[in-house]
Amino acid sequence: MEVEVWAKPGAKVEKVSVAETGQLIVSTQSPPEDGKANAGIVKLVAKRFGVAKNQVQLTFGLQSKFKKMAISFVFAHNKDSEYYLSKIKKALN
């Protein structure tokens, strides 16, 4: 699944919200230097969707505030499609 992200590095509070356009707005306390903000954004997006950090990949916008991220979902005995659908719905609300 691919999501569009508007990054806000150096924020006072870390949070993820959803814009009216459906784009995720991710505020991270990490500074925009040496990939620290990108790592912070990946961590927050992974937490929001209930996946591991290595399941979130930055596909566009390495040095931009506008980013695209690919999220991979791994199905296991306790995580089926219904589990991830509920996570996606919750993440986008």
Quick summary:
With 93 residues, the protein is an alpha+beta fold. The chain is 27% helix and 28% strand. A five-stranded mixed beta sheet has the order 2-3-1-5-4, covered by helices on one side.
Lay out the secondary structure.
Blueprint: E1 2-8, E2 15-18, E3 24-27, H1 36-49, E4 56-60, E5 66-71, H2 81-91
Parallel strand pairs: 1-3
Antiparallel strand pairs: 1-5, 2-3, 4-5
What do these coordinates show?
The chain is α+β, with helices and mostly antiparallel strands and 93 residues long. The chain contains 2 helices and 5 strands. It has one domain (2-91): YggU-like (Conserved Hypothetical Protein Mth637, Chain: A), CATH 3.30.1200. The protein has a 5-stranded mixed beta sheet, with helices on one face. The longest helix is centred in the middle third of the chain and has 14 residues, at 36-49. It starts with a strand and ends with a helix.
Throw out a few tags for this protein.
Conserved Hypothetical Protein Mth637, Chain: A, globular, five-stranded mixed β-sheet, 93 residues, alpha+beta
